[in-house]
Amino acid sequence: CKVNDMVADSRGRIWIGADAPVIFCYDPSSMKCSGIPMDSEGHITGLAIDSSDRICFALSTGGFGSFNISASSFDEFMLAEPSLKIDEEQIVGISFDSRSDDILYIAGKKFGLWEINLRKGVVRQFYRMPKEVEAIGLAEDGQFLWLPMTSGLLKFDISTRSSVVSKLDEVTAICRDSRDALWVGTSSDGLYY
User: DSSP state, 178?
Assistant: First the structure.
């Protein structure tokens, strides 16, 4: 199975979204991995975890859901603006706003950045990708959204809605470490910190 995204919970367990209708949990302390089947035809393309250990996920078939770790149960949440057709977009990354568990950022492969206010059910698009560029992930650090793309790394300022693109060879992966440092992997230029 291809791993599409991973997040760590407050107990140090690693939750994995892959090309299967299952969410996997790896517990490093016991070195055991278990799978929890989803009631979905698609697979997970993106994962995000909030401060209360709720995992939100994007599905390959469109739409989103959440998994309550403490209750070990899945919940689906609907989008209030179906006219935006976000469910027709291939979602490549999701991230909670580090300042609020009510805001979820979404990166679509072709159409850019979206913001969902989970409490109000409001969805809005605030950055459209150039036609020749595809996004491949998303990271957030409280001030910026970092969007790895086929042509570099987009740095999007959340408050001013302005963006800058760093020219790198194809960015293939992005993550924040426990000190909130940003790590960027590329197809041929190596790893950037």
Answer: T
Contact 26, 35 (CB under 8 A): no
Q: Measure Cα distances from 8 to 14, 32, 39, 156 in Å.
A: 5, 15, 23, 24
Return the pLDDT at 81. Answer: 46
Maximum distance among all Cα pairs of the chain, rounded to whole angstroms? 46
Per-residue pLDDT of 34-91, as tens digits, reads 999 987 777 888 888 888 888 988 887 767 788 889 888 887 655 444 444 555 557 7
Q: What is the DSSP letter of 62?
A: S
**Residue 91 half-sphere exposure toward CB, CA atoms < 13 A:** 31
State percent of the chain over pLDDT 90: 10
Runs of H (alpha helix) within the chain = none
Mean pLDDT over residues 145-153, rounded? 79
Residue 138 near residue 92 (C-beta atoms within 8 A): yes
Cβ atoms of 150 and 136 closer than 8 Å? yes
